[in-house]
Structure formats: C-alpha cells, structure tokens
Amino acid sequence: MEETTAQKKKFMIRVRNLRKEYRLKDDTVVALKRINLDIEQGEICCIFGTSGSGKSTLLNQLAGLEKPTFGDVYIRGVPVTRLSERELAEFRQKHIGFVFQSYNLLPFMNAAENVAVPLMFRGVGKRERMKKAKAILKKVGLINRLTHYPKQMSGGQQQRVGIARAFVAHPDVVFADEPTGNLDSKTTIEVMEMIKNFARRFDQTIVLVTHDPELAKYADRIVTLVDGRIVSDTKNDTVRGEANEQAI
C-alpha cells in the first residue's frame, strides 16, 4: 500500500532505513547508516560528498549493484533490493541508464553501435536501433562520428556517446557517477547541459553523484553525505543554466 501511494505522489525512488556494512578482517565498516530518502519523478538529485562519505556506496545500492545489509530501495514501486540477479538485470535494462566517469564504451564497437546497445537488450531490431542511435548522436553533436571507435575520439566526445547511450531508450532513471571527472571545464559545462536538457525533455529522474560543488549546482536538490549519513537535504532554487536552456 505504501508504494502504491508513493507512485501516486510520483516518487520515482524511495529509500527506507538503508544500512550497508563491510567486513574488513576482524572489523565491521559501516558505509551507510540508516538512509531514508525520496526522489521525485523528473527530479535531478545530487548525492554530494567528499571521498569516503558513502556517496558511491549509496549509488550502488540505488542501482541494485550491491545488496544492502538492512533496508530497502524502491524504484517505480519495485523493491529492487529484493530482486534476484536475473530480475535486477531485466529491471535495469528496462528502466535504468548509466553515465560513467570513465565512459565505459565498448572498444570494439563504433559510436553508433555503442549507443544502440541498450536498445538491443530491449529487443529492438537492428535497423530501428541504429536509426535511433544516429538520431540521438546527432542531438549530442556527433553526427560526423557515427563510425568512429572510442580510441578515435576525445574524452569529451566519448562522454557524449556515453550520454547518448544512457538516454537513447528513455529510461526512467539515469545514474551519473562523477560524469565529468575526466573532462576540462568547458566540456564539463556542455556535458552537464546535455544531461539536464535530456532529463527535462523526457521527465526523467537523474541521480548525480559528485564531490564537485560546481556540478551540484545543476541539480534541483542536493543531498549531502558525511560518514554515511545524510547531513543536509536542500532544494536548489536556481539550477545552473536553466535560464539559458536550449531543448535538445
């Protein structure tokens, strides 16, 4: 009943009493301590903190990449923490996208083929998925790089491919883990504008994990972690770039 009500309120993600412990020889390291968090549909939520704050661990819990010690994570009302590995894989293919700091492109595939991978997992035919891949690569300014392989592209171009891949299937949630960590300041702004504009256009939820206060300014909301605890949760009334937003 609780999750049905949450869906009516358009909460895309709900976290309840989340705790994560790791065994280290004879010690127990508590990475997350009783995290409770609601993230709305269409919200850009930044999980902010320094190294060791627990932000990457929290992202792994939200995305179903790790199981919590206690507690639950719900996405679209589905208790992802209770799904089997097979169920999790299917759920991620249908509802989740990722943008990584290290791009994580497949080196033996060109730009268009990399972008088309999520559509392949959804059973979209080759002609249709390549058409969609080409269309979104055009939107991120890479229409002339369709057949280029990762090693033939700059870091900024590779991250644009990564963004196109994350959004091509219009997932409900996109997790962005330090998405500009390897980029210069100019490319960082371009990448963050793309992520924000795609999210606005398709009413998608973004969970941005970063230690960079400049990136946090692109979020609607900033949740700060210290030592595995939420120490502040604030709305950002002036999202960076909002006034000059150009729809993609």
Describe this structure in words.
The chain has 248 residues and is of the alpha/beta class. The chain has a domain of 167 residues: P-loop containing nucleotide triphosphate hydrolases (Rossmann fold, 3-Layer(aba) Sandwich), CATH 3.40.50.300. The chain has eight helices and ten strands. A hairpin with a 2-residue loop joins β9 and β10. The N terminus and C terminus are likely disordered.
In brief:
The protein is an alpha/beta fold. 35% of the residues lie in helices and 28% in strands.
Structural class of the secondary structure composition?
A: alpha/beta
Report the end-to-end length measured between terminal Cα atoms: 38 Å
**What's the CATH topology name of the domain at 42-66 and 94-235?**
Rossmann fold
Order of helices and strands: HEEEHEEHEHHHEHEHEE
Strand content: 25-35%
* Top-tier CATH class of the domain at 42-66 and 94-235: Alpha Beta
Q: Please, what is the CATH homologous superfamily of the domain at 42-66 and 94-235?
A: P-loop containing nucleotide triphosphate hydrolases
For the record, the CATH architecture of the domain at 42-66 and 94-235 stands as 3-Layer(aba) Sandwich
Supply Rg: 18 Å
